[in-house]
């Protein structure tokens, strides 16, 4: 209603206002023309017989394997030892006696039971063995009573070293008893009481010998 009254009483004022309002909302629209795409450089001159990119190459030459020679097998040499003419239970290929052995003969340094000069068997090479001639251990009072039940029914073995004068120079226990104190006393009494005729070598000279003694307790 207000606009109709203004237009009726002041037509010029209305036209001027409409022109100003239309000038305020005028929008200018511009369109951008598309730019031309850059042209790629012309391809370089290529020979007419060149293969196109991505094509397969020619097949390679076939390889020829080198011949291989196998080595000659080694031939084992035969056993030079002759085979026995008659089969038996022995492990050797040939029979016969060796130059030296470990038998019971009386060789100079044999290990048998003969009586050689320096053998280590039962034959010691002595012209006379050690002989006990004095001393004994029989008194029960030589041992402590406190351990009597411990050693009763047992024994001890000692080994005596006897010098060229027939006296004991050393003693050691080879087979102990359940009573160590009694074993020590046995060695002490034997060293003090026992006397021997010394052993003689093959030339009749007195030499050092060894003698074993077993002491039993009842």
């Amino acid at each position: 209603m207000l606009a109709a009254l203004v237009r009726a009483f002041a037509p010029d004022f209305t036209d001027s206002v409409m022109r100003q309002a239309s000038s305020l909302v005028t929008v200018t629209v511009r369109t951008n023309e598309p730019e031309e795409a850059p042209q790629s450089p012309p391809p370089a001159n290529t020979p007419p017989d060149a293969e196109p990119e991505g094509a397969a190459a020619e097949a390679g030459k076939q390889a020829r394997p080198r011949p291989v020679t196998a080595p000659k097998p080694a031939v084992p040499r035969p056993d030079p030892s002759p085979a026995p003419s008659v089969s038996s239970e022995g492990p050797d290929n040939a029979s016969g006696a060796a130059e030296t052995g470990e038998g019971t003969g009386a060789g100079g340094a044999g290990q048998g039971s003969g009586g050689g000069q320096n053998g280590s068997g039962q034959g010691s090479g002595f012209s006379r063995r050690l002989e006990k001639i004095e001393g004994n251990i029989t008194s029960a009072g030589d041992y402590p009573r406190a351990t009597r039940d411990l050693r009763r029914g047992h024994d001890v073995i000692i080994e005596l070293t006897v010098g060229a004068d027939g006296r004991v120079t050393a003693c050691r226990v080879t087979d102990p008893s359940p009573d160590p104190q009694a074993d020590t006393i046995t060695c002490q009494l034997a060293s003090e009481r026992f006397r021997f005729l010394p052993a003689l070598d093959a030339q009749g000279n007195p030499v050092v010998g060894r003698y074993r003694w077993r002491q039993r307790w009842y």
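The two ends are 159 Å apart (CA to CA). The chain has a mean pLDDT of 72.
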